[in-house]
Amino acid sequence: MIVSLVIAQVIAWLVILGLVVAVLALARQVGVLHMRVAPAGALTTAGGPAVGDGAPMVEGHLLDGSHVTVGGPLAGTTLRLLMFVSASCPLCKGLIPVAKSFAEDERIALSFVGDDDAAIQRGMVRIYGLERYPFINGPEVGMAFGVGKLPFAVLLDPEGVVLAKGLVNSREHLESLVIAHEMGVRSVQDYITTLKATA
After folding, report:
1. Do 180 and 159 form a contact (C-beta atoms < 8 A)?
2. In this structure, is the dihedral angle defined by the CA atoms of residues 2, 6, 12 and 15, taken in order, positive or negative?
3. What is the largest CA-CA distance in the chain?
């Protein structure tokens, strides 16, 4: 009886030690995988002005009917973020609160751009609390910036130069626009491509 208990205890401890070794090996592999996986960034597109170019100056309309010029110098701002959204885009709806938080944290002037029916846009403004943000409604701005899919973001400097742009669907993607600008690269993807080429 005692011999069988001792054998059971030895087997249990061997199993536990085996599990500890397996967990440590798995943790190491996860670490290796984490190092190999590239950081996600906003997906850049070929249309519209390139990074480093001046943004096109486009006349647009706010939801209240007043005129606004998008692009060109804008005094009193450091960075400007144009968020292209639509009420019919589920990703856009999820990203709107994230964009508001991101712009507040990074001290970026945020403007929303869409081209839906004005009544639908007003409903979206009310639902998501966008009253204090400029909301430009009309297709002109999206066409000038080459926006083909949503949600799309363009980061501009105070002089209206395109610093970064791309398709975004998370805060990480929005942050990659600022990081690309701070690193002096066109996009996170370009930076990763350069790293792979040098390696």
Report:
1. no
2. negative
3. 91
Residue-range definition of the domain harbouring residue 15: 1-37
Judge if 119 and 190 occupy the same domain. Answer: yes
**Tokens encoding 181:** 């600008």
Q: Is there a single domain that holds both residue 88 and residue 132? A: yes
Examine residue 62 and state whether it is found in any structural domain, yes or no. Answer: yes
The model's pLDDT over 95-144, given as tens digits with 9 standing for 90+, comes to 999 999 999 999 999 999 999 999 999 999 999 999 999 999 999 999 99
58-61 and 67-70 strand pairing: antiparallel
Pairing, β 109-114 against β 152-156: unpaired
d(CA 36, CA 53): 33
Tell me the sheet residues that pair with 80: 109, 156
> Which tens digit of pLDDT belongs to each residue from 55-108?
999 999 998 889 998 888 877 778 999 999 998 999 999 999 999 999 999 999
Q: Name the one residue in this structure whose structure tokens are 């609390």.
A: 129
